[in-house]
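[Automated response] Your request has been received and processed.

Submitted sequence:
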Amino acid sequence: MIASRWLSADKLLFPAAVCLLGLGLLMVYSASFPMAQRQWNDGYRFVTRQAMWAGLGLGLIGVGMSVDYRDYRRPLVLGGSLATVLGALVLVLALPGNGVRRWIFVGPFSIQPSEAAKLVVVLFLASYLARKEDRINDLRHGLLPGLAVVGLITLLVAIEPDLGTAIVIVGIAGSMLWVAGLSYKLVAQAASVMVILGAIEVFRHPYQLRRLMTWLNPFEDPTGAGFQTIQSLIAVGSGGVTGVGLASSSQKLFFLPYPYTDFIFAVIAEELGLIGAAIVVLAFLVIFWRGLRTAVRAPDRFGFYLALGLTSMLVIQALVNMSIVVNLLPTTGIPLPLISYGGSSLLVCCAAIGILLNVSQHSHA
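Generated structure:
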C-alpha cells in the first residue's frame, strides 16, 4: 500500500462535503421533529440516528483518504465487492414479502444494497475502462463484457423495484462510457434500448405509470397521486428569497410525506429560501468542479475514471433529487446526497468523498 500525501488533498472538496453534512443534520432535525414526536414521542429520534451515521461517515472519509485508491483495483478487492453487492441484491429479492423490496434488516438497522451498488459500479467501470478504453467501440471484446456486469446490477436494482436508483446507475455508466469515447451511434442505440426497457418497467408497475401521469399534470389529482408533488411545490414557492425561518416550515407538518428523506430539499427551500437552496446547489457545484479537476489531474487512467465516476454519482443523484422536488422529473425514491436521512446513502456518499480526496492527493500539480 502506497502512503498518501495528506497535505496535498483537495482543500475545497472536503469543506463542501462537510458543509452539506452539517446542513443535512440541521435540516433532518427540523424536518423530522414533528413526525418523530407524534409517532415515537421522541422528536430527536431521526436526527440522533443521522448524527451517528454522519460520525461514521466522517470516519469513512478518513479511511478513504488514507487507503491508496489503486488498492481498489486489486482483483480480490474488486471481485469481492462485486460478489458482495450481487449477493445482497439477490438476497433482497429472495426475502419474503410483496411489493417493494429494497432493504435488508439487521436488528434495529436496515441496509439498502442498491446504494452500495452505485459505488461498486463506479469501481468496476473505472478498472474496466482503464484497461479497455482503446477498444470501447469493439462490441465483443470491449463494450459488451463490461455492460453485461453493469446491466446485471442495474436489472437487479430495477426488479426490486427501484427504478430511480437504476436510472442513476445508468447515468453514471453512461457518463463514464461517453467520456471513454463511446461512439455516438452506440450511444444512440443504447439510449433507445434504455427507453424501451424503461417503458416496459413503467407499464409493468401501475404505480410507476401513475407517477408518470402525475408528473405531467399533478393538479389533475391534487388530493391523490399529485398531492406530494403539489405540497413540494408549495413549500418551495413559500420560501421566497430568505425563507420562513429555520424550523418554521408548515409543509412538513404532515402535508409533505416524509419531508426528511427524498423531499428534504423542499423544506430547505421553504425554511431557508432561495439563499439556502442556492448554498446547497453551490456546494454540489464545488464538488462537481473539484471532482472533474481531480479526474483531469489523476496520475493514471484508473484514477481518472474513478474520480469521474464518483463525481458523476454524487452530482447526478443531487440533480435528479432537486429536479424531482420542483417537478422537472417524475417522483422516484432518490435521496439528496449527504443531506437526506438514511444511513446507507450517507455512508456510500462519504466513502465516495474519501476516495475522491485520495485521488486528489496523488494528482499532478
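Summary generated for your ticket: Residues 1-7 have pLDDT under 50 and may be disordered. The chain has twelve helices and two strands.
If you did not submit this request, please reply to this message.
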